[in-house]
Amino acid sequence: MAQEIFDRVGGRVRLALPLGLGKPVTLVNALTRAAMQDRSLHLSIFTALTLQRPSPQEDMEKRFLDPAADRLFGQYPPLLYADMIQGDGLPDNIEVSEFFFQAGSWLGCDYAQRHYISANYTHARDVLIAQRPNVLSQLLVQRDDRFSLSCNTDISSDLFAFRARGEMDFIAVGEVNDDLPFMGGPATIGTGEIAMLLDPPERFDLFSAPRRPVSHAQHAMGLHVSRLVRDGGTLQIGIGAIGDAVAQALLLRDRGALDPVWQDAPFPLSGDNTAPFEQGLYAVTEMLVGGLLALFESGVIRREVDGAAIHAGFFVEARDMYERLRAMPPEQRGRIAMMPVSFTNALYGDEAAKRAARVHARFVNGAMQASLLGDVMSDSAKPGQVVSGVGGQFNFFEQAFALEDGRAIVTLPATRESGGAVTSNVVWQLPLTTVPRHMRDMVVTEYGLADLRGQTDEEVIRRMICIADSRFQDRLVKEAQDAGKLARGWRVPEAHRNNTPEALRGWLAGHGDALPDFPFGTDFTEIEKLLLPALSRLGNAAASKRALVALVWAGFTAPAHPNEGAAMARMGFDERPSLGEPLQARALRGALRRS
Fold this sequence. Notes:
With 595 residues, the chain is an alpha/beta fold.
């Protein structure tokens, strides 16, 4: 089939691939092999979010991931072009460009970084169209005489519509995978829309994105955000632990179970939306995530717009979400409408109807750092090195400012730990900016909310310092004062001087039943869940000789963890300590005992 595709387009394939889950891996790999074998052929790929199972390099990572990889990620085959980019490189007749990366996957990869295209999600479609794709290919699921685009209506559905109007010319090639849930409505196309179809006898496993544990800091951010969500309003949240934390807090709020948690808070609380949901929420989001599905299944998300309680552009999640969608009664699944991101991420196009639907909108997205003046950095670790991409974050800031009572909420851990050192994520200036200060809105850390919209620079600085970790507040005050942006006599209010991890643990440690590490389940075993924080502690200490020695010492002197033997055995070490065991094993024991 690959050669036939090349023949249909004169030997030069300009391939449009959906981001994430919807990539037809068998077809793409066949096209890549054909181009490798015949250098007269040319293959140009435009896509995003190339999903890859991790390939651990360090011994500890291998010990943890290798025995569990199939269970955690599914038997998802590697994409040949990604392997080549990571290896010896692509031949000159194959090119790959992405506008969004799997987080951190291409750091330090010169080819991927050079070929990255920075674009808002809603503009990626136009960037793609400008490259004149002549082949569109993606995974499909078939029911009778209809195909479903399932997990990826995001850009594909618009391209099919443009072709139907004569505005584009491409051949559509599908690969069938019945593990995808059949999503109806705008996600469906007729079989006549597909020129060529691969229906392999053996289907590959869909990629599964394992859920990470939700930390105390992330649960605290979820609790703060939950007080900002209006009953009868509109919600968007992103993937990952923060999204899980927000969803869990909203579920607890609906059950009336958060009063004891809020009463124990050592930090000032903002927002007065604490009652259960009588009208329910409507969700409009580029990504359908597990937390939103849980809110939908529980009835918190139930306000309908055009017959749908959720409008979403794509999904990639843990395998249980795919199973729940497949098993859902068709009439219930029909209330989840997969749409193009031109619908979910923007107001233009039937703007009046969108404004009427998206009342009291709360768009919740994460960031890596924020400045005292309200700039946000979300997509890069340092200048020139893209971690993920802008994606739709800026789109939702635009919507928040355009909608009456719309708000963009940035969640930000107050600190990060690396190499045994703790640094502040609230800084005086950023190395680069994803969302500029003139669009600053709301920033939430584990220590509270800073409402920045419409405030003077000095007031913004004050509010940002009040949600920073107290270990860094005095330095931030000095930097702002030295820059002439903060009055010399200003001091951090006493109510905000207790922003410490110890105060956070004291608040939430007693509410573990309401705020579990995995509120929506996990594929990790009980012992693996135990190992995760210990391995994180060990990884943070690896770059600091002093921190590493401290863990080794704890492995000798601290009381043994109750499940230490099973955890050590899971990692391939002896259950019982011995004087001759490797230092890395002793350091792991220390990390377990300190966790």
